[in-house]
Each structure stands twice: as structure tokens, then as C-alpha cells.
């Protein structure tokens, strides 16, 4: 806005305080915003040192905002997956009884976990494979920490191996489902194998049965295949699901003892949960939605099928 000034017809801009200092006009952060930022930024210096401090900030935050804490952890899990073991350790601490809580009240961490599950269910319903897979990583760590029941974790993984048995399942869908089930088993293998060796074998065999059906696609994709043979040479190339299957088979043979050397498990440094005093959370049953048929896969003009997308072919490394 401007005003006329003087007889010469010149104009002078009228300045308001907000024009003089835009820095003072920045958005004011509420206490909820600050807590959410703290949770998301967990581990930017030293996660092991930060976790007790963040737990204290969460407990001291009034009024309690469970959806906020759950959302912040969900964002951290899906956008910063390298922090997943440390978010599991934070949730483990939040399961400790609070001095102010009533004896019959559920632990704060349990309430957060129940709300986190609602977000996971929405990912499954939207067939958001990446977010679904990373949440399963989180649940696998919580199973090792004895916050989630082993039986319900088995049930969750079987929901995804069931996708591999679907009639006419596309390779892209099967690959994502196999990664969800296989990586969840890989992370929680120690406790799952101790509870049910046959259950572990069942999941591995389901993945193997699907991998065995992809030999023809591998032969077409592998650049080193020989026309005279349908065998894909394993010395020079390795397919993604083969990597997963080989890792699971090797770890299963050693009862998953090597996991502690390659996957952080910071929650194991905390006192073990007494399952008699706190029953592990039972994950609800999950049904993976059916595959979405894309109408643009068929050309309206010629009636011929369009070329397969890259994700529908085996991936070699």
C-alpha cells in the first residue's frame, strides 16, 4: 500500500512492522509441534543418550496427546527407517509404569502402539507397500522386545505369504509381499524360531515356492543367460528374492544367532518385560486387499496389452 506525498506527485511506500522484520512473523510453534519435532529428530546426535530424555519429555507433556506421539513415531519409522530399532527402544521405555498412572491403567506405550496400528492398517488398506513393509520392520523389533505376541506376529507374516498363493498374482505384488514377510522374519527370527521352528519353515517355504515359479522370467531378464539353457548363472548375478531367500535359509540354519551382529537391538539393554505382569500386544488380523487391475494396461485402440512395467520383472544385482 502506498500514499501520495508532496506536490511533485511522488509516492512513498508505507511500511508496516511485518515488512520491516519478516523474521518476527515466523509461525509460532505450539508445545505439540515442539514435541513432535523432538520425536522425529531422534538420533541426530546420539540415539542411545537421547531416548531417556525424549521419554521424559513425552511423559511430562500435558495434556497427553497419544495420537501426536503415535504419528511422530510413524513418520520417523516410514521416513527414516534406519532409526526403527531406536523408536522400538523408545516405545519399550514408554511401557514402563508411570508414577502418576493408576494401577489398572494401560501403559502409555501400549496406548501409543494401539494407535500406531491404526495408521498401519490405513497403509495396508491403501496398498502402500513401502510404508507397510517398514511398519512390519517396527513390529518385528517390538516382537523381539516382547511388546508384541509371537503368535500374532506369525499371523501377520502369514497374511503376506498368502498373497504369494493368489491365482495370477503379478510379480510386482508378490515381490512386495515376500519382502514384507521375509524381512519381518529376518528381524524377529530369534524369537519366532524359539517359539515355532515349523512356523519359520512355513514362511521360508512359501517364499521359496514362489521363487521357484519365476525361473522363466529370470531367464528373460538376466543379461548373462544362454539361449541354449534356461538356467540362470548364479555366479555373476543375484536376483532380489534369491538374496532374501538365501539370507533366510542361512540364518535359519544357525537359529538366527548372527542377527545381533548386523541389526541394532538397543531395547535389549533395557530390563526385560515381565510378560506375566504385562501381556504382549496381540496384533489384529490383517487381510491384504486384492490387486488393483489397471485399465490402462490394455490399449483401447488395438486391444493389445501394453508392455509390462519394470517392477513386474525380476531384479538382478
TrEMBL record:
Molecular function (Gene Ontology), one example: RNA cap binding
Chain positions covered by the region annotation Disordered: 1-30
Domain MIF4G: 32-252
SUPFAM superfamilies per record: ARM repeat
SMART domains per the UniProt record, alphabetical: MIF4G
Cellular component, GO annotation: nuclear cap binding complex; nucleus
GO BP term (any one): mRNA export from nucleus
Comp. bias regions, Basic and acidic residues: 16-30
Protein name: MIF4G domain-containing protein
Organism: Gymnopilus dilepis
Amino acid at each position: 500500500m502506498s500514499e501520495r506525498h508532496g506536490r511533485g506527485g511522488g509516492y512513498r511506500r508505507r511500511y508496516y512492522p511485518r515488512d520491516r522484520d519478516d523474521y518476527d512473523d515466523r509461525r509460532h510453534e505450539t508445545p505439540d509441534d515442539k514435541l513432535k519435532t523432538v520425536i522425529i529428530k531422534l538420533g541426530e546426535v546420539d540415539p542411545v543418550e537421547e531416548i531417556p530424555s525424549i521419554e521424559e519429555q513425552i511423559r511430562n507433556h500435558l495434556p497427553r496427546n497419544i495420537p501426536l506421539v503415535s504419528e511422530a513415531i510413524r513418520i520417523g519409522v516410514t521416513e527414516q527407517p534406519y532409526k526403527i530399532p531406536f523408536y522400538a527402544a523408545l516405545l519399550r521405555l514408554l511401557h514402563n509404569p508411570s508414577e502418576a498412572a493408576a494401577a489398572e491403567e494401560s501403559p502409555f506405550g501400549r496406548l501409543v502402539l494401539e494407535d500406531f496400528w491404526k495408521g498401519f492398517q490405513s497403509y495396508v488398506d491403501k496398498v502402500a507397500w513401502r510404508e507397510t513393509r517398514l511398519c512390519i520392520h517396527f513390529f518385528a523389533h517390538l516382537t523381539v522386545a516382547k511388546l508384541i505376541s509371537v503368535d500374532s506376529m506369525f499371523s501377520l507374516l502369514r497374511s503376506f505369504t498368502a498373497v504369494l498363493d493368489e491365482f495370477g498374482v503379478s510379480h510386482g505384488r508378490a515381490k512386495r509381499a515376500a519382502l514384507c514377510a521375509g524381512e519381518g522374519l529376518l528381524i524377529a527370527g530369534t524369537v519366532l524360531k524359539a517359539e515355532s521352528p515349523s512356523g519359520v519353515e512355513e514362511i521360508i517355504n512359501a517364499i521359496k515356492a514362489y521363487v521357484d515359479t519365476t525361473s522363466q522370467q529370470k531367464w528373460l531378464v538376466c543379461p548373462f543367460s544362454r539361449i541354449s539353457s534356461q538356467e540362470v548363472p548364479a555366479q555373476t548375478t543375484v536376483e532380489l528374492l534369491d538374496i532374501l531367500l538365501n539370507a533366510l535359509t542361512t540364518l535359519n540354519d544357525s537359529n538366527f544367532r548372527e542377527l545381533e551382529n548386523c541389526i541394532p537391538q538397543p531395547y535389549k539393554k533395557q530390563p526385560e518385560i515381565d510378560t506375566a505382569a504385562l501381556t504382549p500386544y496381540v496384533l489384529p488380523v490383517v487381510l491384504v486387499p486384492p490387486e488393483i487391475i489397471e485399465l490402462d494396461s490394455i490399449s483401447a485402440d488395438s486391444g493389445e496389452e501394453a508392455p509390462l512395467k519394470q517392477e513386474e520383472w525380476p531384479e538382478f544385482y
